[in-house]
Amino acid sequence: MKILAIFLVLVPYALPGPSEPMPKCKIDISKAAAETYSLFKAKGLRPTSVLGITHVSGKYHFTDKPFMAEGADACEALGFRILKLWFTKSVVGGTAYAWNTTWPTPVESLSDLAKTEHYRKVFARRTFDVFVLEAIESVQRANPTAVTGAEYDAIRREFEALGRHLLTAYAGSGKTFILQNWEGDNALAIKKFEGPDRNARIRALIDVTRARQAGVDAARAQAGEKGVQLLHALEMNWVPSKSEVFEVPLVVDAVVPEAVCDLYSISSWYTKIAGNEAALEEKLGLMRARAPASRREASRFMVGEYGAPESIYTQAKNAYGDLEGDTGAVQLRVTKNQVEAALRFGARYSIYWELYCNEWRKSATPKPAGVDAVNEDLNGFWLIRPDGTKTPTWHYFRELFRLEQAGR
After folding, report:
1. Which backbone phi and psi does 104 adopt, to 5 degrees?
2. What is the 3-state secondary structure (H, E, C) of 118-151?
């Protein structure tokens, strides 16, 4: 399937509110953003058409709004037009969007979930052009090492129904919806298994991936893409660079060649370590080499997760001696380097993890449900900290979007 470009009049946006002063930082944030922006210009791309952000499972909140809406507000205010959300039945009554949120019941399928008030209101926002949905099928398989014919059909039908709904409900909106799995290698948990079990689990992931893609293909064939686009992505997380060895079968080697998908995504966490960022371009290149021959355009590859947890840069994982003692500056440099590595490759999207941090530090005692975390509790996957301060990386993204808006 050829990936279509939708040419509609985009809603102009202005960065709302007064500009905020830059925080103290050992990096000149404006200069860093200008360097990255020059790469976007050289590629003929807009930062808002490539850079996205995830909002899920934050351990703190600031308003009395439903948590999904609060995060969407904050992403919108910063200038992002690409938003990644968790999209599985487990969000109903779960922790992904728990703050100030009630859900209707029952929610029986993914298409039911898309029709709930929280998703509908966010999907309807004119400022967001792309939604990346971590969409997990509702089908409960009897055996994790096999996919029966009935299970394959049920998965295909669920994605077909969801796809038809999105293509119909948002026709003419100019929006793109991307349905992706969660980190294929982690989902396989392949290190726990040997021999035939390993091979069977890989075969099952191939079958599930094909069923999801078949559902998306059928939805497009039936509903058409009338001013709206629907895509399916296969995500993986263990893609070796030259300095990494994995002694188990990998999705990139065993599944990608067998799965003709619209897009291929990497959840890239080796590159969060200061000094490793350039490996992201290498990893994307290996994914491209393993993809079916009809799927090797750079624009079919995306970075579904990347980030830079601020807390680790107080430790030995900071390779940048000139930034010693400034964890926000290291987070910014590691983020910038990853953005630029993906941009050099030509990745279609790069989705930052994330707006509010979702991870407790090992040394912290998790707060009870309904109690906000504080800065010291968390690993630092954030643009906005629990105390409300904004990181240098927040200002870097804002400056990138300001430069785009100014047309410089």
Report:
1. -75, 155
2. HHHHHHCCCCCCEEEEEECCCCCCCCCCCCCHHH
Residues 188 and 246: their CA atoms lie apart, in Å, by 14
128, with CB counted inside 10 A (0-12, 13-18, 19+), is: buried
- Domains identified in the chain, total number: 1
| Residue ranges making up the domain that contains 282 | 50-390
User: Per residue in 285-323, is it b (16+ CB within 10 Å) or e — as a string?
Assistant: ebbbebbeeebeeeebbbbbbbbbbbbbbeeeebebeeb
- Element spanning 162, H or E: helix 149-169
CATH number for the domain harbouring residue 241: 3.20.20.80
Residue 403 lies in a domain: no
- Which H helix or E strand runs over 191? none
Specify the pLDDT at position 105: 86
Q: What is the DSSP letter of 257?
A: G
Backbone torsions φ then ψ of 25, nearest 5 degrees: -160, 140
Q: Considering the entire predicted model, what is its pTM?
A: 0.95
Tens digit of pLDDT for each residue in 267-320?
999 999 999 999 999 999 999 999 999 999 999 999 999 999 998 888 656 679
